[in-house]
Amino acid sequence: xxxxxxxxxxxxxxxxxxxxxxxxxxxxxxxxxxxxxxxxxxxxxxxxxxxxxxxxxxxxxxxxxxxxxxxxxxxxxxxxxxxxxxxxxxxxxxxxxxxxxxxxxxxxxxxxxxxxxxxxxxxxxxxxxxxxxxxxxxxxxxxxxxxxxxxxxxxxxxxxxxxxxxxxxxxxxxxxxxxxxxxxxxxxxxxxxxxxxxxxxxxxxxxxxxxxxxxxxxxxxxxxxxxxxxxxxxxxxxxxxxxxxxxxxxxxxxxxxxxxxxxxxxxxxxxxxxxxxxxxxxxxxxxxxxxxxxxxxxxxxxxxxxxxxxxxxxxxxxxxxxxxxxxxxxxxxxxxxxxxxxxxxxxxxxxxxxxxxxxxxxxxxxxxxxxxxxxxxxxxxxxxxxxxxxxxxxxxxxxxxxxxxxxxxxxxxxxxxxxxxxxxxxxxxxxxxxxxxxxxxxxxxxxxxxxxxxxxxxxxxxxxxxxxxxxxxxxxxxxxxxxxxxxxxxxxxxxxxxxxxxx
Length: 503
Description:
- The protein is mainly α and 503 residues long.
- It is built from 22 helices and 2 strands.
- Helix 7 packs across helix 12.
């Protein structure tokens, strides 16, 4: 313990060098901006900045790129809360309750909750990474194809039942997402499936345009469908003050356990290669639906519904550094880019990195504490200005939102097809809302199904004679399968008991 603290102290001497403070501040600001713009995300932000850092000191360069990564987790909540357009996929769950809070005139409280939850999640993740990261990185290696299959099945069954007033509609939405995810090239055989000869679909359903359409453009259609209200403000017109945006002691007490719980879930899910912050935020929200004292409030504008995914996604960004630094295994698309950068700078991530380049490793870890504080201060200062966005008249807000949706969709692949697909998914999202079908299960299925397909088939390929018994003989896999069964059967039994005449 004392040795780690001594090394961390040496890391702070590196992180607090003027150039490195400047680097983490620039990276954090760019991360917030990139995260707040729909369609970009941390992968695009790091990819754009990576070539500019090749001539920099490796430690300074990675500190800046890491700042973009966790700064993006802060920024993604801005457009999710204010416009119902998740800036990046980890903010999908934030939009569920965050936008409802904004509609209730509580945009300031939602933003403060998101920023402080991200900050605390990042700090908890940084502490765990500092003291246990190298050891915990090997936990991720325990998850093979069978374990991943069961974990994803558990997540899909959980969200399908827990979101929406009607669990059956949640299951249907999940099923539709699973069907849509089969479009594209088969990852095992390399053959196209259900593309109907359309080249644009060979890479599968474009995810970012789908998210922008189903959340953002659908909201514009909903806004415009009430045509007689155009010209009025979207939210309450009462003057919003910083004091009204701050959380009360009671509200802090209600979300404190949520933030800690989401941070722990986010970090440990972030450890798993290929899981990333998106899955972490979904898992944290699922856990909150089960463990919160008032689960009926979630989805209708609960602060806990913002705190859970926001604490999880930032903690997951910290967790992703554990396998990257200790094993040289990227846990997400962003850390895969960082891995490429490290190799270009002559740094070989792995067990020997802590011994061969301690100044770099501990300087990077210390910079996460500094960067988290810097990004929080920036975001808190922005809240008074951001919180007025929902009060813009609809006549201005609607076309502005449409322009953001088009820009965000086009920026992913520079494709007109993505814009039209976004519009199509916007129409789908609009009618799903009218028919009271929850959209998050569909989005979650699109995120997880490709990984599920690959993991399931890989598990059968390594199993003797292709036996499905591999999912039962692996203890971790069996535990998640049993949890999935419980997740499905318990609500049915409770409902049956309530509906019985003797109840």
